[in-house]
C-alpha cells in the first residue's frame, strides 16, 4: 500500500502551501483510501468521510487514526454478510492491532506521533508503516486464521 499512501500524501502538494490543508486527507482517510485502491474494495468516496473523525487520534490524541482507518478497511475486506461469525475479519483485526502496537509501542496518536513523525511534523512515516502492516496481515491471513483456530481449540 506504500505507493498508494504516498500518492495520496503527494496529492496535496499540487496546491499552493496556503491551500494544502483544504485538500488534506488525515491518517484514517489515507489508510482507508489506500486499501480501497490496492484491494479494490469499491468504497464510495462519500463513505471515506465516515472515518474523518478518527484523524489525530479522534482529534484527542487517543487511538491512532491510521490504526482505525486500517480496521475499517479490514471490515470491508473480510467482513461478511449475516449470518456469520466474521472469523477471518476478527483474526485480521487481532493480528493487526498486535503488530501495530508492537511496531509503534502504543495505540495512541499522542504516544506515536512524537516518536515517528517526519521532519515536517507529518505522520507520513506512520501511515506508510501502517500500510505495510496491513499488507503483511492480508498476505498472511490464512496462516493467521489457522493460528487463531489452534489457539481457540487449545482453550477448549
Protein described:
This protein has about 160 residues and is an all-alpha fold. The protein has one domain. Helices cover about 65% and strands about 0% of the residues. The chain contains 9 helices and no strands. It has helices spanning about 1-10, 25-40, 45-50, 55-60, 65-80, 85-105, 110-115, 125-140, 140-155. The radius of gyration is 16 Å and the shape is globular.
Give me a quick take on this structure.
The protein is mainly α and 156 residues long. The protein is built from nine helices and no strands. It has one domain (2-155).
Tell me the number of helical segments per DSSP (H or I, 4 or more residues long).
Answer: 9
Proportion of beta-strand residues: under 5%
Instruction: List the helices and strands in order.
Output: HHHHHHHHH
Largest sheet: none
- Our measurement of the CA-to-CA distance between the termini, rounded to an integer number of angstroms, reads 38 Å
Number of strands: 0
Give the overall average pLDDT.
95
Q: Indicate the radius of gyration in whole angstroms.
A: 16 Å
Overall, the morphology is globular
Q: How helical, in percent, are the residues?
A: 55-70%
Low-confidence stretches: none
> Which structural class fits the helix and strand makeup?
mainly alpha
How many separate domains?
1
Amino acid at each position: 500500500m506504500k505507493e498508494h499512501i504516498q500518492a495520496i500524501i503527494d496529492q496535496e502538494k499540487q496546491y499552493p502551501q496556503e491551500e494544502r490543508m483544504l485538500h488534506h486527507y488525515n491518517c484514517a482517510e489515507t489508510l482507508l483510501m489506500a486499501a480501497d485502491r490496492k484491494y479494490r474494495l469499491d468504497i464510495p468516496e462519500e463513505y471515506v468521510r465516515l472515518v474523518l473523525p478518527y484523524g489525530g487520534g479522534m482529534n484527542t490524541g487517543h487511538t491512532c487514526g491510521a490504526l482505525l482507518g486500517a480496521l475499517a478497511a479490514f471490515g470491508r475486506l473480510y467482513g461478511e454478510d449475516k449470518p456469520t461469525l466474521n472469523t477471518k475479519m476478527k483474526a485480521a483485526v487481532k493480528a493487526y492491532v498486535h503488530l501495530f502496537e508492537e511496531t509503534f509501542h502504543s495505540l495512541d496518536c499522542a504516544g506515536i506521533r512524537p516518536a515517528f513523525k517526519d521532519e515536517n511534523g507529518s505522520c507520513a512515516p506512520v501511515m506508510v508503516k501502517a500500510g505495510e502492516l496491513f499488507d503483511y496481515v492480508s498476505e498472511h491471513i490464512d496462516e493467521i486464521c489457522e493460528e487463531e483456530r489452534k489457539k481457540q481449540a487449545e482453550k477448549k
